[in-house]
Structure formats: C-alpha cells, structure tokens
C-alpha cells in the first residue's frame, strides 16, 4: 500500500511534469493577482467560526478534491473531438470526407472516404482515453486517502478523506504521514515547535527540511485546541513558487506575526521524526503549490518537425497544381468535345464542370497529404523513448536511477546538437564537497595528510573498491522513514542523559544522510592547527599574540559549525535538539575558567590587535600530532551509536560542518531558538539563535545572528563567495591598529584564495561582525517590518540583510575539493570531435574554472588562452575587437590549434548588451571553447538564448542545480542531472541523466539513430504517397480529366492506410546504419546530423523526382503492355496497384541499412495482405464499389502470366536507377557512415591481413587514410579510432599514416 501511495504521488507531482522554476511566478499567479472574488489577498480563519461572512469566504475557496483528468463520461467524445480538431491535418481530412458527400464533386462512395479519418481519430481517442483513465485511478486513490480533521460536532479529531478537507480545517498528522494540503504549522510535539519534513514527492530531495511553528505559538505548552484559535491569517493568493510564502497572522490582541516559507507544510510532503503536528489549511486542492506546478509534460517543436511542416505545405502546393491541371484539362476537354452521344445531357458549362472537377480531384488525390504520418511519428518517437529509457548503459547502480525522457517529441533533436552549455559544479564534477585546506587570519594550513587521504580514496575507487562509498550507497535505501517515531521523546533528552524508561530504538537500522560518505566526513586535521587549538588547555594561551590568533581560529570554526541550516541526528535517534532550560549548559568540565574564555572573546570584540605569529616551526607536522592532546585523528572504522549525522541541504554546508567537527568544534543539536555546539577546551555551549539570513544568488552569502553564550554579545557570522566577502570585510571604526592587521589578513587571504583557485578548489570566505545592543535594536525593528510585509517582502528582506552584512571582520577562507566525474574528459573530447562546441558556464572563480577546463580537456595544452576581464563597457568593446583581431591573425597563420575564451561575470554583463553582443558572438564563434566564470543564473540563460537565436544553431544546456533551471528551459534541449542538489533541474529538463558521461551515448548513439531513422521515415512517407498519387494523376490524361480512377475505392483508401503503413513504422523504429560501438568510437559520424544531411531540402526534392520517375514507369509499362487489348479499367489498374506495392516495399529494402527476420516478416506480410485482400474482395464483393464491379477482376488477372511479367518488369525498371545511384555513389564517394558500417563488417583477422598487404605495398604513402579492399571494392576510409581488436592488430603491423 505504501509503495502504491508513493507511486501515485510521484505520478501526480513528478510524472506529469512538475516544473520548478527560480523565477518569479508568472503574471496571474503572483501574490498581487486577484482571486475569483477579486481579492488581492487571502483571508483564512478557523472553519469553526460562527461568523457567516467569514464562513462564506472559506466556502469560496477550492476544496481539496483533485482532478487531473481531462474528460468525464459525458464530455469525452465532444471534448476529445474538439481537441483533435485543433490539428490542421484532421480538419483537412474531415473537410474532404464531408466534401465527398456532395453529389456534384464526389469521387467514390462517401462512406468509404470517412474510414481513414475515423480510424485516425479513433486511435488517438483510445490513446487519450487510456491516459485519462490512468489519471482517474490515481486521482481516486489520492482523494480517498485518510487524515485526521477536527470535527465541531464531535469535538475531536476524526478520520476523513483528503477530498473532504477544506480551507480553515485543522489537520492533525503523525510521523510518516503525507500532508494532504498546504497548511500553516500551528503545533508540533517537539517542545521547541520544530517539525521535519521530507520533500521527495515534491522536488525529489531526500534530505530533511526543518519547519517551525508560527512565532509565539510554541509557548502554549500543550496541544493546540482548535476552539481556542481565534486568530486571522492574511496571506498571498495561490501561486506556484515553492520557495516563498508571504503573509501574517493577527492575534485577537491585534498583534501581528510575519509568516514565511518555514511555517508552511506543503501538500505531498511527508512528516518525519516528529510525533504529532497540527496545522490549519490555507490552500487546498488545485490551489496548493504542488498542483500549481503541475503543468503537464513539456512540449517543444523539434527542428525536424518544423522542416516537416514546410514540406507538407509544399505537398499542398503540389496537390493544388495537380488539381488545377486536371480542372483546366477537364474544361478544355469538354469544350473541344464534339461527339457527346455517350454523355448524359447536361447544361453545366465547361468552366463550372472544371470547377467541380477541381474539388473532385482534391478528394481523389487526398493521399498526397500523408494523413497517417503524424500518428506514425508519434508511435516511432514513443518507441525511441522506450529504447532510450531501457538502455542499460544509462543505469546508475550507485544511485539506482536511469534516464528519464520528460519531453516526448524532441528525440531527433538529440542528433543535431551544435552547442553544449554545461554547468561545472555537480555536472562536470562530483559535487561531493570534501574539505581540503583552509587559511585563518592570514596563516595557511595545507592539510597534507588530508590530501594524501583523498588520494587513497581516488586510488581505491579507480581499482573498483566500492567499500569507501558504502554509506553513500545506502543513503536512499535507509532513509529517515525507517526510524521509529514513537520513541522520538527519548531523543529529546539524549544530549543531557535523561531517560523516561523506554527502550532505546534498535540500532540495527543505521541511517545515512546525504553528503556523509567517509571521504566527505573523515577529515584528517592539520597538526599545526591542532597544536594551536591545544593551546586552549595551556596556561600560556592568554599571551597577547597567541590569544589574538586563537580568537580568529575559534571564531572561524564556530562559524563553520553554526552558519548553516544543518539538521542533526544520529543512527538510532531522530534528531538532537537543545533544551531551553539550559541556556549556558556545559556538559564537560572546561579546561579553563569561563572568565578566561570570556576575556578571550571580549578581546576579539574590541579593536585591539597585534601582529600574528609566523607559521614557521622547527618541528615536523607529524610531531605536533603526536605531542598534542588530540584524540582520534584517523577515520573511525565503524559508526558508533552516538555518532552524529548531519542532514545538509547542500554539499558545501556538510563539508564545512564535518571540517569543524574534525577539530572538535561540533554542532551537536539544533532547535528553533538554540544551537548546541561543542568547542575544544570549553565543552558544550548552548548558543541562542536570533536570525538566519539564508543564501541567495544576489547576495551570494548567508549569515546567522547569534547571542554569544560567553560574552552575551550579538554576533553575525557570515560565509559566502570570496568576491563578495572580501569587499564587505572592512576594519571596525576607530581601530587604528586593526587597519594594518586586517589589511595584512586580507592580503594574505587573497593570495591563498588565488592559490586555491589555481588548484581547482572551491573557495568560501568566513567573516564575523560584533554588534552593539543599540545597533541590533535599530536593525531588528526594520527587519521585523520586512518580515511582516506581504508586498515586496523579498526586496525588503534583501535590503535588511545588506544593512547588517557590512564592516565584516575577515576570519579566513576554506578550500573545498570537488573532483571531476568519471569519463568527463573523454566525453568532452568526443563531443568536440563530433563538431559540438562546448561552453562551460560557472559561478566559480576564473582560476578555478580554468583549472577545471584543463582537467576535463576542454582547454588543451596547445590552445591559446584568451581572457576577458573588463571594468567598463568601453574597455570591453576595445578588448573584444582586439581579441577578435588576434584570433583572425591566428587563423591566418599556420600551426595554430585553436583558441579558448575565458570571460568573467562583469565582462559578460557588458558583452551581453545590445551594442556589444555582436562582437562577443563573433569572437566566441571562432573559439574552440568558451568558459564563462562568475556568471549568474540569468547570465547563463541570456548566453544560451543569444547563441541560439543569433547563430540559429541547435543548443543543449545541462546542469544539476536550481541555478541552472533558466538555462535548461531556454535551450532547444535541456538535460538535468539528478545529482546532489535536488531535482529542480531534472523537473525543468527534457531529459534527465545521472552522470555527465551519459551525454556521450545519448547524443552520439541515440541522437544519431533517432534523427536518421525519423528523417528517413518521413522522406519515405512522402515518397510512397507521391508515387501512388501520381499514378492516379497520369490516368486523368486518358479519361478526359474526369476524376475517374483505375482501381476500386477500397484499395485506393487502404493502400496507404493499411497495405504500406507497417513497413515505414519498422523502418523508423529499428533501422540502424552504424552500430553503437562504432558511433562511440567514431564521434565524427555525428556531424551528418548536425548538417541535417539526412533531410535537406534538396533531399526532399530528389525524393519527389524519384517518386515521379517511378510513377511514370509504373503507369506506362502496364499501359503499353495492355494497349489494344480488351482489358477494362479495373483490369488495367490491377497490375499497376500490384507493381506499385512491390516497388514501394522493395524501395524500402534498398534504403534500409538493417534487414532482420522482423523486417522480412513485415514486408512479406504486407505483400501477402494486399494480395489476399484483393483476391477475397474480387471473389465475394459484387456491389462493394459502385458504379464499378470488381467481381473476379483480380482473380482473373492473377491467373495470367502477363500480370506477373508486367509486375516484374515494372518493378525492376522503376528501382534500377536508385539501385545504380547507390552503387555508384558508394563506390566513388562513400559517406562516412558507409565507411563505418563496412568497418563493422570486418573481422579482426581479415583486417590484419589487409593491413599487412597495405603496409607492404604502400609503406611510403603519405596519404592521410588507408585503403581496404572489401569485396573487390576500393573504399577510402579515414583514420578513425578503431575497435580494440583492430587497434592491437594495427600496432603489430605498424602505422600506415605519415
């Protein structure tokens, strides 16, 4: 039952295409938009209210019943028919079917003409009905789920179905229950008003999120009583922004408390690690944020589809020309006709008859427009997606995930990509952030032992030792839902040793959170830094120089430990909280007195500093570790029962918390108002948490405001990008001596940051600020106003944060290593060989971006590096022109391998402006690769849009985080990586993969196959329709352009609809020109798709000419064969239809690159179906096709040798030119795909023999290729990467290249 529940919710929120965007909600969904009653805000009160006006307001809101289906029992037929009429092709064929009921223009039986369109509409309707029925089953199950709702009559919580929940109802939920509607958290069994939720059903993230009760409500002390709730809630109208909630709650005393996203429990999330929560519903049903994001599957028009629409219009033009020709011919024929004794007397003028004949010919030649092509394309694309999703190479055993195809109609675009735009972190790299080294107060700590530890992990992974990642592998399987929530009360006292006599939970189900593999958390401390921290236990630690440096070190690790939103838990306890009754708790005997510790921190709060001690020493780093009083430097072998587990929202946070813990600055617990932190030499301290200013892309930093447990001062700890923190790091006012010290620290820290960036490390700066009580009170008033605002709340909160985060004291910086994913260099190299230009768009420092570009082979050693760093628009324009001239000189010179452009964010701002983007685009177009560093999410999307629109190329964007969403949505094809940063990118993408390396096979193999298969199938459809329609057109020249046909109407209708419909489908699904291994080894083959070689306008018109020639042969050979005989119209048409069928089927055999037993079965089956149908039809049908009588015609024809002779001669002559054309072209100028296909056919022994022969005769040749004699055919094959066996043979026989 639980699996079905999760599947249904996934189907509701993920399978239907939840699109999570960082952008503001679109107009009409924003909080300023009006609801159905015209209100700009939503008012929510208790549903128990007796106020009739408020009750009416609550009734006006949507109920919680969810309906994702399109149709009802009565509306299905009219509504589905109305939707299908939105397709122009369906309207066209319905018009022709109706036209055939008009007596003056009908061509054959009206009933027969409606069969094709009815069949197409019926197939589509059945498909839509099946999809809608599946949605109906899911809706019924979800609406029938049960939750506890407070009943006024019974004055207790009773079980009710989800669909009976309404806005204003009080809902009580227990651990592991799913939230039925968006509700405001009013009560939590946690004494500090904290609730934990898992949002996997909503955004795919499995790590826990913390939510808190509305301020002032936790002090109730007991469970919320709904009858006593008389507050009024004012909030924004329903919208689709999952990360925002604005409003306020007004108590009966008229006091207002601001509401934010941390107070809101979203529908389809799951309660974790909390026994009981109570909330009041504010949004229900389709007004919940989850349903507002339910936009259905993504739809994009592929490039091939746009080309197809153009060719359909050309077919319409061709149809009109043919009908006009017939109409004019018919009018002229009637006008010049002298003896009309065989005609029924008619007063209709020749001109009017020609007009009628025009519409008759429209009906007769309607097959020229391929009615079944669109349905066939949908079927082929579904099969292509099936093959992609079931490719075992895309399966990630570590994450237990496979590729997701979220866009159903752009598979062929994968074979035409020309530009790839990639994020760096989490896309090219692992996004497993591991603390590598740090600098504190200007002193660098290299952590050499930690570096050697990481090298050991890399070697183990390279050798296939999976034990180092065992804990991460179990992250999904052993999630938090395995914990026993009925014992969570025990965990509340874990830190203080209290127990209530209950048995402790069994430790047999250890839980591992994200970002907590041994590689990430088992950090080896730097001995030099350990020794300094050990000075806290020394009587000399209050010396001037030592104490000043220690203040920096302790504050540095304090910031790492608490400047985050990490949730703390342990393998056998849900989470650790801080008891409010112990504000200054010290669980261990401190190594020094609190007075000394206070003096230490107070000294750092004053502007009195001295110079730092030099880091040099005469003892080895290892001796410090041995002499120091440090415990447990090595990684633990097995997790202890009391080991802490950190639930972090990002790998950066987890890496820094683990680093602080390695130095015994341990985050032990978290509550709504307090943090429990253990510091070396001081024991466990309860730190009062005043505010959290979360990270955002505009500030590029996050801060926490705390009340220091020792000094009682208000302290702001900030971490963020070095480019931002270094600018905010100013000296305190009036600190004359500190100017030199802070300047020295900033200078040294900047040098270390540059070194870190050159090593490819991610850098973060750490800073602090001590506020006076007066300053804090002034800031708090403005911040409280911003928190309670509904309009412009984000802007006010941003201004408030920026006012606080000024004049920071720089503490230090960290260097975090983020390794490349496996096979990233090989993938990028293969894409570049395939003619794809790869751009990397990252927010990292320029040095880091260049280092990663070198590591992943985006930047080659032979490339010339061009950097663009400008401070003004004028300088940017001059530099772009200068770099462009340099590139042009390099292109003119010989021996230049290529250029790589590196642009920083500020320069990119200038380059994207209207008057400079042309120069920037021209420069970047000439470069092999481009790296944009320090770029914002908006800049990423603008770059992709600029290249896509201006160069008119096919673009692909790939990323793994929420900051990549806009870029992914702008590109022609968006790829999301299901990595460490949640599922926002995946939900906005067209395809989702787990590793960057999968991009190689997705494009080079499946992209190539999808494009060539679909392009060839579309051309084949046009060919067979034009070929058959021309037969009817040529007959008009011999029947006075009367609109008559030489076949019965049943065969005419079924010829394209049934007899020749299956082979093209098989052609589009299974045709394979080159094997997957060869496509991987020869990326150059991908260029044929980039250049649209399979479906060019010239290819289309050559196909039309070939169809014209074949129709002439197919018509006139039977015509001359039966000339002068007594064969009637149907007898003449019988060999024509049979020959046309054989020509069309054998034409596909010539064009197919793959012939299997399945192809033979379908081709032979189609032919047998035709002959069986016509034989049975001619035997049993007497009046099936009035006014003609087909009785016995085909039976008689198939009994005569002339019939078979005509069919054989016609088929050979019709296909001979195409066969000769292929033979000559493949002999004289074979395509790359043909050469690769021949390589597939060669076995290694045959290849070795021919290579040895070549070496003996052509050893001195300087040609850049090799000639292989295949079946007495000399074909020049370029020096591609050969299969492994052929490589070994080639190495043994020697190189043949110059």
From TrEMBL:
Cofactor (UniProt): Mg(2+)
Domain called P-type ATPase C-terminal: residue spans: 986-1230
Sites where the protein binds ATP: 423-425, 653, 695, 719, 762, 842-844, 934, 940, 963-964
Molecular function via GO: ATP binding; ATP hydrolysis activity; ATPase-coupled intramembrane lipid transporter activity; magnesium ion binding
PROSITE patterns membership: ATPASE_E1_E2 (PS00154)
GO biological process annotation, one example: phospholipid translocation
List of catalytic residues: 423
Residue positions binding Mg(2+): 423, 425, 960, 964
Region (Disordered): 494-515, 612-640
Domain P-type ATPase N-terminal per the UniProt entry, residue ranges: 58-114
EC number of this enzyme: 7.6.2.1
Subcellular location, record wording: Endomembrane system; Endoplasmic reticulum membrane; Membrane
Polar residues biased stretches: 612-628
Membrane topology label: Multi-pass membrane protein
Record's keyword terms, sorted: ATP-binding, Endoplasmic reticulum, Magnesium, Membrane, Metal-binding, Nucleotide-binding, Translocase, Transmembrane, Transmembrane helix
Any one GO cellular component localisation term in the record: endoplasmic reticulum membrane
Reactions catalysed: ATP + H2O + phospholipidSide 1 = ADP + phosphate + phospholipidSide 2; a beta-D-glucosyl-(1<->1')-N-acylsphing-4-enine(out) + ATP + H2O = a beta-D-glucosyl-(1<->1')-N-acylsphing-4-enine(in) + ADP + phosphate + H(+)
Pfam families: Cation_ATPase, PhoLip_ATPase_C, PhoLip_ATPase_N
Residue spans crossing the bilayer: 308-334, 354-377, 1035-1059, 1100-1123, 1129-1146, 1158-1182, 1202-1221
Protein's UniProt keywords contain Endoplasmic reticulum: yes
Family named by the database record: Belongs to the cation transport ATPase (P-type) (TC 3.A.3) family. Type IV subfamily.
NCBIfam families (alphabetical): ATPase-Plipid, ATPase_P-type
Name of the protein in question: Phospholipid-transporting ATPase
Gene (name only): LOC110505678
